[in-house]
Amino acid sequence: MAMGKLHKDVGLLIVQSAEDAERSDSQVIKDISVKTKEILANLAALADQCEDSKVTLESLKLHHFPPATENFLFHLAAAEQLLRI
Fold first, then answer.
1. 6, 26, 56, 71: which sits with the fewest CB atoms below 10 Å from its CB?
2. Domain range spanning residue 45?
């Protein structure tokens, strides 16, 4: 699977947070949790713009996301039951 900017941003956050010697394990987990909630909130906002508050592949394509990001969001929407096929 190709990595897009979103994947790289999440990976960088994880690495930077984990490498910070002053951060506890629970703080690293909190950092990841905050980023995850941000991504899910953005996906929910996309879904709110769609019929039945469900994302479709066509609605994702309208936003001209990079292919890797589009694929990631499509599968995330399916996992979060925000996908209309």
1. 26
2. 5-79
